[in-house]
Automatic annotation (TrEMBL):
Gene Ontology cellular component terms for the protein in this record: endomembrane system; membrane
Similarity comment: Belongs to the complex I subunit 4 family.
Membrane topology, as annotated: Multi-pass membrane protein
Location of the protein in the cell: Endomembrane system; Membrane
GO molecular function: NADH dehydrogenase (ubiquinone) activity; NADH dehydrogenase activity; ubiquinone binding
Domain NADH:quinone oxidoreductase/Mrp antiporter transmembrane positions: 122-407
Keyword Zinc assigned: no
KW ATP-binding (keyword) present: no
Listed GO biological process terms: ATP synthesis coupled electron transport; electron transport coupled proton transport
Entries under Pfam families matching the protein: Proton_antipo_M (PF00361)
Sorted UniProt keywords: Membrane, Transmembrane, Transmembrane helix
Record field: transmembrane: 73-92, 104-122, 128-148, 160-182, 202-222, 234-254, 266-287, 294-315, 321-343, 364-385, 397-417, 433-457
Protein name (database record): NADH dehydrogenase subunit M
């Protein structure tokens, strides 16, 4: 058994879902999502048993391109994040009445296929193909099933598509240049290149152009809030929970090892960019009146801290960044789903139009409160493990980096608790708040359970990712 089975399952799942018709589409997509997650667990067990579950096959002769999938602890962690969140996101949409549901759910599975391929690919051109493929389904999901004014939605989605595509072209140029030097796109061959400091600088910056837009980091973030707001909640979950992790993962897997000299030389600058995102995202979040936009800027702040941790080039920074990537994936999906639950009942995302939900739905209020506290890194939650590790790594570089990065906890607590107060407390809204459905309760409980379990016992993930991160760090620190 090898990891190519995951890609095959998701691709077949997308096709079967489309052919199944609108009535069965959601259930078929859910079935394939669960099966794929189950197979991911089986593959993890094989990997832990010492088996080689990677995949390699010749694909294109000229230029030399291989269909190569690398299954190490880092890529498996991201595979598990994707295959765990995909069925959760699909299940969360069961309360929505979707037109042309077969196409919608087929696009969700196809997007999961592309994102998994991005995390697993170890051939540079194959990786780039998967990277770009992931853009296509989210473009149509946001454009066709999005909300708000049609023209504004089109404008936001087209900007996102062109902006992201343009940034990725710099990365493609870097891959082509390295192929001319190595005669191969395989990551192992690219790692072995002895590029000059000048060459590494331009490659580092070319990758940064692609990743800074995808993550996003300021000042490349201008597409994010509008797309998160205009996309349907499923699309927002896919973007924030998984897709932006493609950029963060790629920083660790591709950018830092291939531009190691530049990474060391410009480390303070890129750490500062990440921390600037923390402060900027938090301040802008304070001013938001739309719940989804507030959560979008909150996400911008958190991913800025993750990026800062990765750019420390320390084992604690890399490990903390990956832990926080996974934790952020679950908590942000939970928060956007809570916002969707409120929207289904009140048909508004304006915070001022909400209020008094606690008196009408105490169980939902409790679950929402847990998600809010997890997002601000309350001890015993998964986010605390990641943020503490990242802040510790920043303190090893410069104590001021840790102090400024730590503002994400202070500012985050302020705007998240303030939002909770206006949304859940206060006077009761005139509209009734219908009790949560079974699917809504299960979705929230699963996410909360994950956040507490790994908040109390993160060892399985740290044991999985640490050897891979140590190998990458060895590559970054090699002399020639």
């Amino acid at each position: 058994m090898n990891v190519s089975l995951i890609l095959l399952l998701l691709l077949i799942g997308a096709l079967v879902t489309y052919l199944s018709g609108d009535k069965l589409a959601s259930k078929i997509a859910m079935l394939f999502g669960l099966v794929t997650f189950g197979v991911s667990i089986v593959l993890l067990n094989h990997y832990n048993a010492g088996e080689n579950i990677s995949f390699l096959a010749n694909w294109i002769t000229q230029p030399k391109v291989s269909f190569a999938l690398k299954a190490d602890g880092l890529s498996l962690a991201m595979l598990l994040l994707t295959t765990a969140l995909t069925p959760i996101i699909i299940y969360s949409s069961f309360g929505n009445d979707l037109k042309n549901a077969k196409t919608f759910y087929a696009l969700v599975l196809f997007m999961a296929f592309a994102m998994v391929g991005t995390f697993l690919a170890s051939d540079g051109l194959l990786y780039y193909i998967f990277w770009e493929l992931a853009l296509i389904p989210i473009y149509f999901i946001a454009l066709v099933w999005g909300n708000g004014d049609v023209e504004e939605r089109k404008k936001a989605v087209v900007k996102f598509f062109i902006y992201t595509l343009a940034g990725s072209l710099f990365m493609l140029v870097a891959f082509v240049y390295m192929y001319q030097q190595a005669g191969s796109f395989m990551i192992e061959d690219l790692y072995k290149l002895n590029l000059t400091p000048s060459e590494q600088k331009w490659i580092f910056l070319a990758f940064f152009a692609a990743y800074a837009i995808k993550i996003p980091l300021i000042p490349f973030h201008t597409w994010q809030a509008n797309v998160y707001q205009k996309a349907p909640t499923v699309g927002t979950m896919l973007l924030s929970g998984i897709m932006l992790k493609m950029g963060l993962y790629s920083v660790i897997r591709w950018q830092l090892p291939l531009g190691r000299i530049a990474a060391k030389e410009y480390m303070p600058i890129f750490i500062a960019i990440g921390i600037a995102g923390v402060i900027y995202g938090s301040i802008v979040a304070l001013r938001q009146k739309d719940l989804k936009k507030l959560l979008a800027y909150s996400s911008l702040a958190h991913v800025g801290l993750i990026a800062a941790g990765a750019y420390t080039l320390t084992i604690d920074g890399l490990r903390g960044a990956v832990l926080q990537m996974i934790a952020h994936g679950f908590v942000v999906v939970g928060l956007f789903f809570a916002a969707e639950i409120i929207y289904r009942r009140y048909e508004t995302r304006t915070i001022a139009d909400m209020g008094g939900i606690r008196a009408l739905a105490p169980k939902f209020t409790s679950l929402f409160m847990i998600l809010v506290l997890a997002s601000v890194a309350l001890p015993t939650t998964f986010n605390f493990v990641g943020e503490f590790t990242v802040l510790y790594s920043l303190s090893q570089i410069n104590i001021w980096f840790a102090i400024l990065g730590g503002t994400t906890i202070i500012l985050g607590a302020y705007y998240m608790l303030k939002m909770f107060q206006y949304v859940m407390l206060g006077e009761t809204n005139a509209k009734p708040f219908v009790a949560l459905s079974t699917s809504e309760i299960i979705t929230l409980l699963v996410i909360v359970a994950v956040l507490f379990f790994f908040g109390l016992y993160p060892k399985p993930i740290t044991d999985l990712i640490t050897p891979s991160l140590e190998e990458i760090l060895t590559q970054i620190n090699r002399i020639n």
